[in-house]
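Follow-up to my earlier ticket, as requested here are the two runs.
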Amino acid sequence: MRWEQLDGLWEQVLTRSEGWYVYEVGGIPPESPLDFKELQDAVSKIDEVLHSEHEHDYCGIVYADDFAEPTLIKVYDPGNLGVVCGPGGAPVPPRWILSRMQPRALIEETKEIEKVWWKRILPVYRHSKTTTA
């Protein structure tokens, strides 16, 4: 995505401003959608962070379900991209989620996944030890 495309996405959000929730992952999910002024302020602050911290000629860290009529937008933290592709490491959650549906807490789910990652590989390891012994 180019910066101009991000500008267009923000325009779509603000043009159809009713019913948007903005959730900063790690915080408490909002219980109600933002009014126009709150949404405008949130979009402005997110855009400012992206432009100041993602010093590239493109903006490849914002994902939308539909650019013409978005209902879900994930914005990743330019300062915490982690290992996006490749093996290992826990998945990096987005920093902000803009949604027309009320969001749930995301960090707790991520922590649960991290706690049980070994359960997926341990049976494989145990099986390989018993078949080779």
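Run two:
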Amino acid sequence: LSQDEEGKKRFVQEAKAASALNHPNIATIYEIDEADGQLFIAMEYIEGQSLRAILDANLPKVLNLREGLDYATQIAEGLQAAHKKGIIHRDIKPANLMVTDEKQVKILDFGLAKLVGITDLTASGATLGTVAYMSPEQAQGVAADGRADIWALGVVLYEMITGRSPFKGKSDPVVLYSVVNEAHQPLTALRQDVPADLGQIVDRAMAKDPDQRYQSIEEMVTDLRAVSNFERAPRRPKARLIARRPSRTVLAGLTVLLFVLLLGTFALFRISEKQDGSALRQHRIAVLPLVNISEDPADEYFADGMTEELIATLSKISELQVIARTSVMRYKHASKSIAEIGRELKVATVIEGSVRHAANRIRISVQLIDVQNEAPLWSHDYDRKLEDVFAIQSLVARQVARAFEIQLRQQEERRLAQKSTENLEAYNLYLKGRYFWNKRDQTGLKKGVEYFQRAIELDPNYALAYAGLADSYTVGWRSNELSPRQRFLKVREAAMKALEIDDTLAEAHVALASYVDLYNWDWQRAEQEYRRAIELNPNYAIAHHWYGNFLMRMGRSREGLRHSRIAQELDPLSLIINASWGHRLYYARRYDQAIAQCKKALELDGDFVFALHYLGGVYEKKGLCDQAIEVLEKAMTLSQENPPNIAALSRTYATCGREDEARSLLHSLIVRSGQSYVSPYHIAAIYEGLGEKDRALQWLEKAYNDRDPVMAQLKVDPRLDGLRQSPRFAVLLKKMGLER
């Protein structure tokens, strides 16, 4: 490569950046040097052929789905490793992708790579790369980021599956015009065996607007793995013998060493396996409830708050998978050993400690413990002024990262250093608000609202307090004290204010998502907000939980159940997450699995009303009347006869032939609806059970006019299957944008 001095510097900088990449799906660069005035790179020799050659040889045939998905997943995993180093490729195309004889994909030519955050290193401008795979922003000369690689991978995947390019033309300008302005033909229109989920992956990767694409390659990797329906076994290239074969003694020694290493690796990761057998993220950790050793027992809220805050702080580190508060708080007064807790939570390490709060001083003692042998990996005492509480949380997080040899990213460092408020009294009120919010009953939610509002009065720019306020109104939406409009407008106001102050709060994005989802019925915006929350905090179990519910209601059951599983992994002992998983299986008409899952939730707490409510609904659909009535009568009693449980029992009486009892409960609900808000949707479900379809549809139309949040499940609710052939029902689906 003959270049001027500036060009040489650019070349060397890019090549060195690429040489730092070490991943099975990236071709290794061994050397960067100059000879006779020419720069060169020496890279790994790869036996195989380019993907371009494979595709050309296959024409007019196409790759089978399994093979195409496997290749795409490997490419995405290679790009994921590069993007983590701040390197984007900018020229992903079949000619730059080698496939070995063992079907391993290698990404070539990071010579066009760009270090994110550094001035453009390439002399030939922003529109480098082959036009057919160029993103719209590259085609328009706009600076490209990692989403350009996501676009290009979408084009490559499209070509592998269909055997044709999504954008064609007789000249480069014509192709570029098509890339920028014309929509590609859907995969499902070109190939009948393409799953809808795969079509959605390609459509999202190839969104014209970068903000509508996957915002990180990690998201695309996750979706590709999910749709593949198989775990790709790791493939290793065959070793090339350079000089001589090693002796048998050496081979035997290496075999023993490998066996020992494998045993060690198995011991390390065995505890963090998924239920389906695949390994979870390596660094899975739980923060056990910090013990309050203050002289004042009333400081219990402060110890619980510190536990929750430490969980939230650790969750800012992307390479940690942190068990959610709900699960760890179940061990607050437990007498179980660390080993028992580790097995139940499927974690290899835990943090435990104590908090002492006195006047303006705070003392926090913490230790990181290896679950397997219950030995401390490190411990530390922090005796500081109360104003240093945020610094203590950040210090603990950094020490945990160092213990796991995690290199923190700049964004993570910034988030760890960020203070949520400078007002300690506001912070104290916020902790009290969360303490009562976590009780999840009407009294606790009311107190939570009160404390969050007082915190905001002291610090009007306290984003977390606004997020707590939004959470309180969101969680309490089933209360009949406020109409949906009154409640959800409060959710929107608080969430928008939180995001105005700090748009990196996952909690605020989820609260806003709940508003546009359950009240505004803006499904596209809701999905954007749920995904943004998960991107900001992949450890936020509630985000996965609510997003899973959203996906199930949209009819995307495979994706919905996947996010439900992730939520359960992050918060394995959460009652609502375990019970709701059963309800989502009910949406999917997988009734036997739904019953089993609801029973698992009831093993955690036999009086959990939501689990009883959901289980009764499944029994009712299966015609198991005695079981349904038994659990629903219990749910109604435990809930102090709240409307949803009265409605569920009334409907069950109706479908089980006990019409008089059904109508008696129905009448009581209609009377109550004149005094406080009762969901018209629930009344419609009772009329459907009584076989009065016209009245059922009248109440559904009223629910639509009221913007009843329960209407969001209209598309998938099994209770309404008897109405689905009605034109009036079809009109409702269309008006809500749920007809597809």
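The only thing I checked on run two: The longest helix spans residues 248-270. Let me know what else you need.
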